[in-house]
Amino acid sequence: MTHRFAAASLSALALALAGPHVPAMAKPKAPAPAAVSAAPQAPADLPTLVSRVNIPYETFELENGLTVLVHEDRKSPIVGVTIYYRVGSKSEPRGRTGFAHLFEHLMFVGSENVENFDIPLEAAGSTPTNGSTWYDRTNYVETVPTGALDLALFMESDRMGYLLGAVTQDKLDKQRGVVQNEKRQGDNAPYGLVSYKVSEGLLPVGHPYRHSTIGSMADLDAASLTDVRQWFTDNYGPNNVVLVLAGDIDAKTARPIRCPSPATCATGRARASPIPPRCRWRPASRCSAGSPRRASTMRWCAARNSRSR
Q1: Could you give the domains of the chain?
Q2: Whose CA is closest to 66, among 239, 255, 234?
Q3: 293 and which of 21, 123, 194, 285 could share a cystine (Cβ 3.0–4.6 Å)?
């Protein structure tokens, strides 16, 4: 048995030695030379990049100065509604920093006619309503089913015209607390104070962009109902607003949104330059005496301010 095993082993060894020589480890082949890459293209200039963005829209202005932009997109039966007020933290008077943002919060606490702004819209299928404030603007947004567009426009028009009677000291104090907690949350986040230092380092005292949109705790504490009324009167009129409708709507449908009796709409106080004059505003349901108020149909009151925007 041992002899046979030895003979078999010697035979296998002889065959291996008689075969072609194979190196223990073949050397890897050298990689093929890389193709010469094309020269990098120069970046496109700004006008060229802008020309590639194509979002078609139509725009028109109502008699009361409200600007409307309409972008038609029929992919889904929904309409995005944005109300853009041309006022932000740069317009805040000295000692009232943070007030534009505080007032944004007050726009959601209900009006003289509607106790809660969110509930009717969300019951009709709206996305959660929201708003934001920055140096130059304050905007309010919601996306609604096409069938709820009249309701959304009525709600926006109603709080533009009838907010003040519903704002109480209790509501102001609660929203002040919400904004101050928002400030604490931002200030205590990592690097939360950096933006203050950047603004202070770049902009001189008195520059409208030097103070933060969130404001200071002391100025928020000082905000009063008198300030609320003044801010609303000075800034929240239709000739200081851009309304954007985007989605399942066209300009032909949007154009009839106007007041049937412009002569009965009263204008109000206008603030001195650099803030454009404001027009006090009323929904069409109260434009003419005896006209019934219909929540299902909204019209923008067509009061014209005596001065152009």
Answers
A1: 55-286 (3.30.830.10)
A2: 239
A3: 285
Please tell me the pTM assigned to this model.
Answer: 0.71
Reading the block at residue 18, the tokens are 């008689």
Q: How far apart are CA 71 and CA 59, in angstroms?
A: 9
Return d(Cα 260, Cα 288) in angstroms, integer.
8
SS3 130: strand
Closest among 164, 162, 139, 140 to 152, alpha carbons compared: 140
Cα–Cα distance measured from residue 298 to residue 162, given in angstroms and rounded to the nearest whole number: 14
Measured at the CA of 117, the angle between CA 231 and CA 296, to 5 degrees, comes to: 110
CA–CA dist 156, 154 (Å, integer) = 5
3-state helix, strand, coil in the chain (%, to 5): 40, 10, 50
Q: What are phi and psi of 140, to 5 degrees?
A: -130, 135
Q: Is 3 helix (H, G, I), strand (E, B) or coil?
A: helix
d(Cα 59, Cα 254) in Å, to the nearest integer? 10
Lateral strand order in the sheet of 67-72: 58-61, 67-72, 241-247, 78-85, 138-145, 130-133
DSSP code of residue 123: H
Phi, psi of 142 (to 5 degrees): -160, 155
DSSP helix/strand/coil, 58: strand
The pLDDT of residue 286: 36
